[in-house]
Structures are given as C-alpha cells and as structure tokens.
Design a protein that fits this description.
Blueprint lengths: L7 H14 L2 H8 L2 E3 L5 H21 L8 E3 L11 E3 H11 L4 H28 L8 H23 L4 H16 L4 H9 L8 H31 L13 E6 H26 L5 H4 L18 H9 L5 E2 L7 E2 L1 H29 L15 H20 L2 H8 L3 H40 L1 E8 L5 E6 L3 H7 L29 H13 L13 H5 L8 H4 L9 E4 L1
Antiparallel strand pairs: 1-4, 2-3, 4-9, 5-6, 7-8
Helix pairs in contact: 1-2, 3-5, 3-10, 4-5, 5-6, 5-10, 6-9, 6-13, 7-8, 12-13, 12-14, 14-16
Length: about 575
C-alpha cells in the first residue's frame, strides 16, 4: 500500500467528519502521519498508559474513600483491629481492602501503576537525555517533561499519605519537619497544610484535594501539551540508512502505530493487573493506624522518595544560629537534604539543554538522535547524576543494610558520605573511558570490517582471519555520528577569518566558554573512511556476508519515508 493510498476506515471516518464539521482533510492527513519507530520510544508509553490506569483505578477508589481525620472505632472485617480507635481515612482504606468487592485489587493496581508511572518517566527521561533528543526544537517539551516528573513526585507523596497508617504517617512527619524548617515561610506552609499544630485535623482532606483534583488536573494538561508537541515534532529517529534531519522514516499512525499502541496498552494493563493480584504492596492493616507517639522500625518510603530519605540519613546534624540565635535557627541538617539533591537533579535537567547549547554554540535543529557513546561528556555527566541518585537511594536503607550485613550503622553512614562525593567522579571517569572505547570499536569495524570466521593463509605462511564489510544498515547506523560543534574564538577552537576572537569571546566568560567548548566538543575518535584490508575482503564471495545478500534486511514493508 502506498503512502498516498487512504485505507477505507480512514476514508469513511474522514468523510463522516467532513460532512458535519468540515475537518475531514485534517483527520485524513493526521491518521496517515508517519512516525519513527524504535523500541526505546515505548518507555514513554509505559508512563502514559500507567497514568491512564491511575486515573481509572483512582476514580474507583474515590467512591469509597473518606478523607477525614475524625476518630472512629473500627468494626470492619479485619479482626485484629476491631475495636481500635483510628481515623476515618484509615478505616475507609481498611474497608476498601476487605469489604468492597475488588477494592484491594484496585488499591494495589493503583499503587503499582503509580510506581510504574514514575519509573517509566524516569527511564524515558534518561533515554531522551542520553540520545540528545532534548535539543532544538524540543527544548520546550523537555521542560514540560521535567515539570511532569516533579509534579509526579508530589502526587505520589500526597497519595501515599492518604491512608493515614503508621508507615505513611512517619513520612508525613518528615514532610512536616521539612516544611517548618524553611526560613520565613515554613510556619505558614505548615499551618496551611495541617490546619494547626501537627498533626492537626485537616491534612488528609487537603492532601486529598491536591491528590485527586489539583495535581492530576495540571498533570493532565501538561501531558496533553507534551503529546501535542510530540505529535507536531515527532520523535527523533535513530541514525541509519536513509535517515536525515530532513525526512522521517517509519510507519503511519494508522494502522501500524495505532495497533502497536493498543497492544502495548493491554500489555501494560496486564502487567499491572498481575502485580496487583499476586504481588502484595502497602499492606496497611499490618502497620496499624498512625499516632504521633509511635514509629515502626525499618520503615522505607516508595522508591521515588528513597533518595530524599537517604540524603536525610547521610546529612550531619548541622545547625546555623543567626545573630547568636536571636535571628532564628536554620536546621541545615533538614534544609540541605530536602532541597539540594532535588534542586541539583531537577534544575540540572531543566537547564542542561540550554547550557549545552551555550557551550557548543549549536543552534541547529536536530531530528536524528545521538548514540550515547558519540557524546562522551554528556553520557558521563548523566551517569554521574544516576550514581548520585543511586547512592542516596541505597543509603535510604542504611539501617537495613547495617542489620543485614552486620556492619556498624555509623560506618555505613560514613561510607555513604564518602561515596556521595567520590561515586559520581569515578562514574564520570569510567563512563568517559567506556564511551571512547566503544567509539574505537566502531572505528575499527568501519576501517577493517567484521570477523567472518574464515581463516586464510597468506603466501608467506601467515594465517589471518578474513574480515568483511559490515552490513550496510549497521554501517549507516555507525556513520550517523557527527562531530560535536565547538564555538570559535577565545584561544580555543577555530577563529574567524581574521584570526581574531569575536567580541563576545574576548572577556573572561568568553574564554571560559571557549575552553569548555573545546573540551566538550570536537571529534574524539574519528571514523576512518573505507574498510581497509582490501585483499582480505576480496577473498570473500557472495556467500560470506556481501552487501547484496543483506540489502533488504531490516527494511520493513510498512516503513515509509516523508520529507520533514
């Protein structure tokens, strides 16, 4: 079927719409829109489908949950807690779990979908970062994605606190401690959330409003904007044969992409349903109702808040008394862990596209994704951030690590404080060397070909293994590499034709920019032209991996190419 041919379902639907609102051409054109295709694009779809499941299961739960902190005596089906005084929120959460048909399944699916939603967004953000898919013209969509991830963390925190059990109450106590430690506005924010002195009587109702109304509404609006921009700009496509910045190689939205998306939604739904059925999560009946006087040992938050827990546990007990205490006390042991790690990660993500553009001076449009190895500094920075996050996340369970491995808790904490500084540095160095090694491997394949498994004896008696050219699709993928631009002037990189730095590069900031650009950009390991070892290649006939034999491999029959 050619790209100009309109399938009958599209023709019928577009005619129906056109006869009524005159938008048939718009519908027909967009249903045949071509999208690049790659498995990594599905990572973002996991987050999208998890959000849909969150909305569906959350709607079910709102019919039965009571967001109140009034005291009631439990008289439900769960025997061990009968007669125990608890909040209305906790009692209704128990009722959903034990007395509402399908309630426990919905609760657990909702919780698993929340974890998958945030996890999917994190992995999707890493994919976009490491491939440089945030570059012009997609900076705005990148900022929307960073804001979505930040709001998702807030949505998870408010939802996690709603059952008012002992575990979530401990997290809520930490939230209150962080809020009240903020200078100037801390007390006001705390009273606004809790309705008075902790724990107050209003926090569950106010978190409930935030959780089901305000934050989801903003998320829904941002996701819609994110999808619209993605629809207009399309995904970046991976380098390969026939792929350029001026065209799009892929399959049409209907039927190929629509069928894949529908099937993948069902896969995501099935996995979450199976997890909700067979993998118990957040058994609130085992924790008991929350009281400020109680705390459970070994309590851990959900994974997405683990890095903040770790930062709190690693931070020394620092305080800053202003004007000898007369100006107040800043609890640095709370402020720094609560604000600095989140600020480093989220602010760094938001600003990185613009910092990279400033360093490289690259203001071109990019529709071809980069292989992570081909931008070693960016990949190394990303792995340093992942290491920073991972160490904080791991040390959020320093008490469990200490107990399980029989290590002193103090030494576990000291090791964490050392690793949080040294770990990202080591990760940067190792990642950079690995990227250069992978680039050398690509250059060797382009220059010498790939091993054929055929041993050849040369006239002078030497035995060699014959190499053949790589498959044309693999070679095109490797040759999609581009040198990272370098700004001119300032004593580093090329200058203008008069060999004089431009006006903006003459000051200290300009010289710093030029040095950073020279270090960050350029071609680290060039790809050699040709394949070399011509005498080895000539000995291989069509039966040993010639280009003609594999020319059609990887070219799906449904793939189309459109000019961008």
């Amino acid at each position: 079927m050619s790209i100009e041919t309109v399938p009958k379902p599209i023709e019928g639907a577009s005619t129906f719409v056109d006869d009524r609102i005159g938008a048939g051409n718009f519908l027909r054109r967009n249903l045949r829109k071509i999208f690049p295709d790659h498995w990594s694009f599905l990572l973002g779809e996991i987050a999208l489908y998890s959000f849909i499941i969150l909305l569906l299961t959350g709607t079910f739960l709102t019919f039965f949950f009571k967001p109140g902190m009034g005291h009631v005596e439990y008289a439900g089906s769960y025997g061990p807690l009968q007669g125990v005084t608890m909040s209305e929120a906790y009692a209704s959460a128990l009722s959903i779990s034990f007395d509402v048909r399908g309630g426990l399944l919905m609760r657990q699916m909702h919780h698993w979908a929340a974890l998958l939603f945030i996890g999917g967004m994190m992995v999707h953000a890493l994919r976009v970062f490491f491939t440089g898919a945030y570059r012009k013209p997609r900076e705005l969509n990148w900022l929307i994605g960073v804001l979505l991830l930040t709001l998702a963390l807030a949505e998870g925190l408010t939802g996690y606190s709603l059952p008012d059990d002992l575990l979530s109450g401990a997290g809520l106590r930490i939230t209150e401690g962080v809020a009240i430690s903020l200078p100037l506005v801390g007390t006001w924010i705390t009273f606004f959330l809790f309705g008075g002195e902790y724990p107050g009587e209003d926090v569950i109702a106010r978190f409930y409003s935030l959780h089901i109304l305000l934050i989801p509404g903003i998320l829904l609006a941002l996701i819609s904007a994110h999808m619209i921009l993605m629809w207009v700009q399309k995904h970046t496509q991976m380098p390969g044969k026939g792929r350029t910045n001026e065209n799009v190689v892929g399959a049409p939205f209907y039927p190929a992409f629509m069928i894949k998306a529908g099937a993948y939604f069902m896969f995501t739904f099935g996995v979450i349903a199976l997890l909700g059925t067979f993998a118990q999560i957040n058994p609130i009946w085992l924790f008991g109702p929350y009281t400020p006087a109680d705390i459970s040992a070994g309590s851990q938050p959900d994974f997405y808040m683990g890095f903040l827990e770790g930062s709190l546990r690693l931070m020394p007990a620092w305080e800053l008394n202003l004007f000898g205490g007369a100006g107040g006390t800043l609890a640095m042991s709370v402020l720094i862990p609560a604000l600095v790690p989140m600020g480093i990660v989220m602010t760094g993500l938001a600003l990185y596209p613009f910092i990279e553009q400033w360093v490289t001076g690259d203001r071109r449009e990019h529709h071809i994704a980069e292989r992570p190895r081909n931008n070693p500094h960016r990949t190394s920075i990303g792995m340093s951030a992942v290491t920073f996050y991972g160490i904080l996340w791991l040390l959020g369970a320093n008490d469990e690590i200490s107990a399980f491995f029989h290590i002193s808790l103090n030494w576990t904490t000291y090791a964490g404080r050392f690793l949080i500084i040294a770990g990202p540095v080591v990760a940067y160095i190792i990642t950079y060397r690995v990227c250069l090694g992978l680039q050398r491997g690509d250059a060797a394949i382009i220059s010498h070909g790939v091993e054929s498994g055929v041993i050849k004896r040369l006239p002078h008696g030497e035995y060699i293994e014959v190499h053949v050219p790589p498959h044309e699709a693999i070679e095109a993928h490797m040759r999609g590499k581009e040198a990272i631009p370098i700004v001119s002037g300032g004593g580093a990189g090329p200058k203008n034709r008069d060999d004089i730095p431009s006006k903006g590069m003459r000051g200290p900031l300009g010289r710093l920019r030029a040095k950073m650009s020279a270090a960050y950009g350029g071609e680290k390991i060039p790809l050699d032209d040709g394949h070399g070892h011509a005498e080895e290649h000539g000995a291989i006939g069509a039966g040993h991996g010639s280009h003609e034999e594999h020319a059609a491999v990887g070219q799906g029959g449904d793939d189309k190419s459109l000019t961008r």
